[in-house]
Design brief:
It contains two helices and 19 strands. It is mainly beta and 254 residues long. It is elongated, with a radius of gyration of 18 Å.
Length: 254
């Protein structure tokens, strides 16, 4: 359980900051039941990103098995469309937000509102997101029945990185994904390389790795995303399912 808690904290910190590198009255209008489905475009701007994730661990070269009972689910809402959906401090309220009938915890920080499943135990195969809405966000009930991404190429994730050289990895043996983030950490600091279109080879440049310190206990976190975009009352809402693999230890040298 302690290991799971540490991984969850890592995933939250990394994913809620990775794309930064680069009180309202709830609506009483009955929510639409479905919305209009658009073509999946990972970089599209949206007023909301609704996110569910499960993960795998690879420790000392041994896979630990997919963890589908410990997961991360969150909701982010904006007053205007953005393609920065992992911002941990979204800037508007959406009323009561629920995932398959379970209400997410609403937190307000410096006037910005975020929603999170604090049980870290919920990433169902078929997801129904609902919100009572606000002046900025329409009420909605949306179903995401797409499959989660899969990835079996963890053997290609490096076990070492240098702060003076690019780190590359082949991205293969994945399915049902259209976006990827690669995070490299020395255990204290993390650097990220994000791709809205998945390349055959991911490169974390030396200019970013230079921020890390030498260690024998770093890690690599590779996260694949599958995006579904829907429109409700003229507002674009992005549904994301994600799969992350956490590989440790990573040796970082100069």
């Amino acid at each position: 359980m302690k290991l799971n808690s540490a991984i969850i904290t890592t995933i939250l910190v990394v994913l809620f900051s990775c794309k930064k590198d680069n009180t309202t009255t709830p609506s009483t209008t009955p929510p639409p039941t479905g919305g209009t489905t658009n073509t999946n475009v990972s970089a599209i701007s949206a007023v909301a990103t609704l996110f569910t994730l499960h993960y795998d661990l690879v420790v000392n070269g041994v896979g630990q098995g997919t963890n589908t009972t410990t997961a991360v689910s969150s909701g982010a809402f904006y007053t205007s469309p953005t393609n920065d959906p992992m911002n941990i401090y979204p800037n508007t309220d959406a009323g009561i937000v629920s995932l398959n009938g379970i209400q997410l915890k609403k937190s307000i920080n410096a006037g910005s509102t975020s929603y999170l499943d604090t049980t870290y135990s919920f990433a169902p195969a078929i997801v129904t997101w609902s919100a009572t809405g606000s002046t900025a966000i329409p009420a909605f009930s949306l179903v995401d029945s797409t499959q989660y991404p899969t990835y079996t190429g963890w053997g290609l994730i490096p076990s070492g990185a240098r702060t003076s050289a690019n780190m590359t990895m082949t991205l293969s043996n994945y399915s049902n994904a259209d976006e990827v983030n690669v995070s490299v950490s020395d255990g204290v600091k993390s650097v990220n390389q994000h791709y809205y279109t998945i390349p055959s080879t991911a490169t974390v440049p030396a200019s970013k790795l230079a921020a890390l310190s030498p260690t024998t206990n770093g890690y690599v976190l590779v996260t694949f995303f599958k995006n579904t975009v829907k429109t409700v009352a003229g507002k674009t809402i992005k549904l994301q399912k994600a799969y992350a693999i956490y590989k440790s230890p990573l040796q970082v040298t100069n």
